[in-house]
């Protein structure tokens, strides 16, 4: 049993004796009343989508599924194709990609997750590095407090490019580390 | 679909008093509203009857089961024990996500039909609340689904707790000078003190111990306009005692400069409403008194419950952005009162300047409060909204 606060996007959980994949997780709330986890899920048996909200301490059975290291190969609309080291190809539906789609990059290493012999999702490392392909230059003097700006990240599929909030000192072409659980900036990677 | 006629007839609220009086304050208000305005048989499970007694003196702190103002009150002693499905009511409300006794949840699952299970959440003006309001939360193992219900400030939330007659009662009280005098006399003020209070600015003060009271008292002392500040017993007791140089017991009073400070008895909910109505400016804290201050329709300054990593500052800013309009003095004052302003921790607030600006804007804040109240009324009242939602699940 795992509490909701430890469950990651891509995990398969049992709810009402049915397997659900967590496609998206938004955490909100307060330390006073406890955090809430709003999950977009999909029933793996029926493909029916579901949106539920849970408390951080709600406990779930996590289904331990087979996983295999794979690398992203190419997009065959609407399937994302991954390949293992023996050149076996695995196709994953776009709706099962979850947040991973935001970080997709040619040759990206991740883990394919299998249910009933079929690749159903991919799990990302907690921390990944991506290059900033566009962000506004910092405005002189506007450097106090927690001021943030948007940064667009490199992505294998242009239409899926997304932005995260970064500090003002981050420049275009910088490589930054991101926490894939929260889509939050962690630090600039300096070589 | 099952008929919703006569639904619900019974309801249980589970309340844990984490600290202070907000948890029981809200649950008790909710329980009384359901009982008196919707004729529902309500059972209130509370783990701390002593705190309950502070806001409702009729409560017997030693009773396992008692009836208080038409509500069955049960002492919630722990998570053990078995429960009979026949004893589970039509609606079960867990307040602020408290964990219900496992045996009770099992009884809920065995009941036919299962109860409507509501997780009653904390009030916030943050945008994400709308996206979570009324969402389901399936039980991982049992055939039960609870639903999250969020109070709030928009039509996409549950609204605010409000008694049907509240605003009429408030307006009648305000229109009756004798009632105002009698109320102040009940708090222990002499006729001379009442006259002085009415000639100056009447302020109620309810805050957490972290509030920068010394700066505020200093600004009031040095101000030109007399201020009578009424502070309930136990609120910021050390700082108030420091002002007196003596224990802050009910009846203690002292005047320094333009400030007269008086300690009043800790009071029941209904009296606290009258205090908010009787004052020109109210300092409130947490959630329950914060909501009551909004219904009082007077200028108020909110002291938000402090949280780790200053998460409460986000909640405070969300509320100010929504409710304070363009009254900068109220925003500045509120941020400073909560330690949420400034870019460096050693930057000291200029309390005389903050107070001067706030005082000058009190008429504008008063007008803003009326507009804000009108928008809250448009969202309906929380209990009616909650019951409508519960019926939609049947």
UniProtKB/TrEMBL annotation, chain A:
Compartment annotation: Cytoplasm
A GO BP annotation: peptide biosynthetic process
Sorted UniProt keywords: Cytoplasm, Elongation factor, Protein biosynthesis
Molecular-function GO terms, alphabetical: translation elongation factor activity
Domain Translation elongation factor P/YeiP central: 67-120
InterPro entries: Elong-fact-P_C, NA-bd_OB-fold, Rib_uL2_dom2, Transl_elong_fac_P/YeiP, Transl_elong_KOW-like, Transl_elong_P/YeiP_cen, Transl_elongation_fac_P, Translation_prot_SH3-like_sf
Gene3D superfamilies, per database record: 2.30.30.30, Nucleic acid-binding proteins (2.40.50.140)
Alphabetized SUPFAM superfamilies for the sequence: Nucleic acid-binding proteins, Translation proteins SH3-like domain
Domain Elongation factor P C-terminal: 128-188
Pathway in which the depicted protein is active: Protein biosynthesis; polypeptide chain elongation
A single Gene Ontology CC term: cytosol
Family, as annotated: Belongs to the elongation factor P family.
Protein function: Involved in peptide bond synthesis. Stimulates efficient translation and peptide-bond synthesis on native or reconstituted 70S ribosomes in vitro. Probably functions indirectly by altering the affinity of the ribosome for aminoacyl-tRNA, thus increasing their reactivity as acceptors for peptidyl transferase.
Protein name, as recorded: Elongation factor P
Organism, scientific name: Massilia forsythiae
Lineage: Bacteria, Pseudomonadati, Pseudomonadota, Betaproteobacteria, Burkholderiales
TrEMBL record, chain B:
Entry keywords, A to Z: Elongation factor, Glycosyltransferase, Protein biosynthesis, Transferase
InterPro entries xref list: EarP (IPR016633)
GO MF terms, alphabetically ordered: protein-arginine rhamnosyltransferase activity; translation elongation factor activity
Origin: domain of life: Bacteria
One Pfam family linked to the record: EarP
Protein's job: Protein-arginine rhamnosyltransferase that catalyzes the transfer of a single rhamnose to elongation factor P (EF-P) on 'Lys-32', a modification required for EF-P-dependent rescue of polyproline stalled ribosomes.
Family: Belongs to the glycosyltransferase 104 family.
Protein name: Protein-arginine rhamnosyltransferase
Organism: Massilia forsythiae
Gene from which this protein is expressed: earP
């Amino acid at each position: 049993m795992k509490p909701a606060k430890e469950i990651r996007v891509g995990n398969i959980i049992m709810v009402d004796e049915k397997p659900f994949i967590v496609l998206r997780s938004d955490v909100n709330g307060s330390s006073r009343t406890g955090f809430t986890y709003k999950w977009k899920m999909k029933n793996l048996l029926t493909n029916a989508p579901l949106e539920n909200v849970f408390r951080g301490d709600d406990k779930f059975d996590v289904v331990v599924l087979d996983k295999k290291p794979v690398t992203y190969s190419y997009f065959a609309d609407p399937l994302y194709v991954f390949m293992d080291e023996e050149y076996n190809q695995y196709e994953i539906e776009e709706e099962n990609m979850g947040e991973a789609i935001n970080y997709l990059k040619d040759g990206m290493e991740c883990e394919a997750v299998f249910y009933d012999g079929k690749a159903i999702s991919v799990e990302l490392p907690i921390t990944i590095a991506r290059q900033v392909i566009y962000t506004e230059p910092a405005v002189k003097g506007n450097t106090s407090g927690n001021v943030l700006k948007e940064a667009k990240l490199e992505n294998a599929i242009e239409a899926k490019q997304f932005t995260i909030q970064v500090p003002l000192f981050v420049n275009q072409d910088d490589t930054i580390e991101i926490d894939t659980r929260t889509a939050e900036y962690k630090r600039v990677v300096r070589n | 679909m099952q008929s919703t006629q006569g639904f619900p007839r019974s309801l249980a609220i589970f309340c844990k008093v984490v600290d202070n009086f907000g948890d029981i304050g809200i649950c008790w208000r909710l329980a009384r509203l359901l009982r008196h305005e919707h004729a529902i048989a309500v059972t209130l499970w509370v783990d701390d009857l002593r705190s309950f007694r502070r806001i409702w003196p009729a409560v017997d702190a030693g009773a396992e089961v008692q009836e208080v103002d038409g509500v069955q009150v049960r002492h919630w002693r722990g998570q053990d024990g078995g429960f009979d499905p026949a004893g589970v009511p039509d609606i079960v409300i867990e307040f602020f996500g408290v964990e219900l006794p496992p045996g009770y949840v099992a009884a809920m699952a065995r009941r036919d039909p299962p109860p409507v299970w509501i997780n009653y959440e904390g009030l916030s003006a943050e945008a994400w609340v709308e996206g979570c309001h009324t969402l389901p939360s399936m039980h991982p193992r049992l055939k039960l689904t609870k639903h999250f219900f969020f109070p709030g400030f928009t039509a996409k939330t549950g609204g605010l707790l409000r008694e049907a007659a509240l605003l009429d009662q408030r307006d009648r009280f305000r229109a009756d000078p004798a009632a105002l005098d009698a109320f102040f006399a009940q708090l222990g003020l002499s006729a001379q003190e009442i006259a002085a209070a009415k000639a100056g600015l009447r302020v109620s003060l309810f805050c957490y111990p972290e509030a920068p009271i010394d700066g505020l008292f200093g600004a009031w002392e040095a101000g030109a306009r007399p201020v009578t500040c009424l502070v309930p017993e136990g609120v910021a007791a050390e700082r108030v005692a420091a002002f007196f140089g003596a224990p802050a017991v009910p009846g203690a009073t002292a005047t320094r400069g333009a400030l007269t400070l008086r300690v009043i008895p800790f009071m029941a909910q209904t009296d606290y409403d009258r205090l908010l109505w009787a004052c020109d400016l109210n300092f409130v804290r947490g959630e329950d008194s914060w909501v009551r201050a909004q219904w009082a329709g007077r200028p108020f300054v909110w002291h938000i419950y402090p949280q780790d990593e200053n998460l409460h500052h986000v909640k405070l800013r969300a509320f100010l952005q929504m409710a304070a309009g363009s009254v900068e003095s109220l925003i500045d004052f509120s941020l400073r009162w909560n330690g949420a302003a400034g870019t460096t921790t050693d930057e000291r607030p200029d309390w005389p300047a903050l107070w001067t600006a706030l005082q000058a804007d009190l008429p504008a804040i008063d007008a803003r409060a009326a507009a804000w109240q009108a928008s809250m009324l448009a969202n309906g009242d929380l209990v009616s909204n909650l019951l409508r939602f519960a019926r939609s699940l049947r």
